[in-house]
Design a protein that fits this description.
- Helix content is 91%, strand content 0%.
- By secondary structure, it is mainly α.
- The protein is elongated, with a radius of gyration of 37 Å.
Length: 91
Amino acid sequence: MNLCKRVMPVLLLAGLASLPAATFAQDTQGAKQDMKDAGQSTKDAAKDTGHATKKTAKKAGHKTKTTAKKTTHKAANKTQEGAEKVQDKTQ
């Protein structure tokens, strides 16, 4: 009981001391500024998405181009090998 009498006032005092900090810490920004910030954030997000899309498309295009070149060269080499085999058989 004696401990309870000592601890309760300390806890109560600590709770009351933290109350003004919680009630006075309010955002001073108005609704208009909130809307401006939201619009700016949306604009930045759209720009980031556009840049990422451009980068991805560029990479995909490059990969397609290099793969097509490799495939074409491989097919041409195989065709040339086949033509040489036919040429060897006809001589």
